[in-house]
Design a protein that fits this description.
- By secondary structure, this protein is mainly α.
- 60% of the residues lie in helices and 6% in strands.
- The protein contains 11 helices and 4 strands, in the order αααααααααβαββαβ.
- The strands form 2 sheets. It has a two-stranded antiparallel sheet. It has a two-stranded antiparallel ribbon with strand order 2-3.
- A hairpin with a 5-residue loop joins strand 2 (226-230) and strand 3.
- Helix 2 (19-37) packs across helix 5 (69-81) and helix 7 (112-136) crosses helix 11.
- It is elongated and about 70 Å long.
- The termini are far apart.
Length: 263
């Protein structure tokens, strides 16, 4: 039998890593994998052995930290959705399209009628752009998986972690979009109607986008559903169904700044 000292051993040759460093390496490696592929429903398919290898830590060290695959995934979910890229606000392309639309239609902002028309055109273009960008992102796939797992956790021991993370992500999404709508209404010289707020608008549009988005896996045709809606110069033009519903979610909640305030 060969001398053990003469046999190369990855375990013996790997330098010892401090527990805190090993933990962060494991979380960073998991986040990198999620950014590449997105999370899967139930999180059970995350390849822990692949993550351990990518992190450059020993298997024993990883299992000392968490004890089980499920415990690691619970911490990874919290880590993933705490990162800035998972804010799930409007995509950069959406923000750019809104900025371009405001510049292009600045001449309409002098009258209440023009401001309303400009708002509808911004909704028509930007809501579809954001919806398509969202569906194409790994962040959305991860968020969708979190939503499903929180609603029916496969591992009851970590149900609280999933539910708390889902609530945190949901509130962050709404908070982010609340700030956006506050700024946009100000630029359009519009305001929420009495009894409503920019947050009401953020919640309403969030329900539209996520409601359809979560069902596309079952019915993919929803991704390309179009209807006729008002065109900027009069008449009608095609609207993506998400934009159409977003318009009907926003219109009843806002009014022009020139309208008399309700008593």
């Amino acid at each position: 039998m060969p001398d053990a000292d003469a046999v190369p051993s990855e375990r013996r040759r790997r330098p010892r890593i401090a527990a805190g460093v090993a933990r962060q390496r494991m979380l960073d490696a998991g986040v990198a994998l999620v950014e590449r592929d997105g999370l899967t429903v139930g999180f059970g398919h995350l390849p822990l052995e692949e993550i351990i290898a990518a992190a450059g830590v020993s298997r024993a060290s990883a299992y000392r930290q968490w004890g089980s695959h499920e415990a690691y995934v619970a911490d990874l979910v919290t880590e993933v959705f705490g990162r800035p890229q998972y804010s799930l606000g409007f995509s950069p392309a959406t923000t750019a399209s809104i900025t371009a639309g405001l510049r292009e239609h600045v001449g309409l902002l002098d009258t209440a009628e023009g401001r309303h028309a400009a708002m509808l055109e911004l909704v028509r273009v930007a809501a579809e752009r954001n919806f398509r960008d969202l569906l194409a992102s790994s962040q959305w796939r991860s968020y969708e998986s979190l939503y499903v797992a929180a609603a029916s956790p496969g591992d009851p021991a970590h149900a609280e972690t999933l539910e708390a993370t889902a609530r945190t992500v949901e509130q962050h999404f709404i908070d982010t979009n609340t700030g956006f709508y506050q700024g946009l209404l100000g630029m359009l010289r519009m305001r929420p109607r009495a009894g409503h707020s920019a947050r009401s608008i953020a919640v309403a549009t969030h329900l539209v986008v996520t409601g359809i988005g979560h069902r596309i896996r079952v019915e993919p045709s929803f991704a390309d559903l179009m209807v006729e809606g008002p065109a900027l110069g009069g008449g009608t033009t095609p609207w993506h169904f998400v934009a159409h519903l977003t318009r009907h979610a926003i219109e009843p909640l806002v009014e022009d700044d020139s309208a008399p305030a309700d008593a």
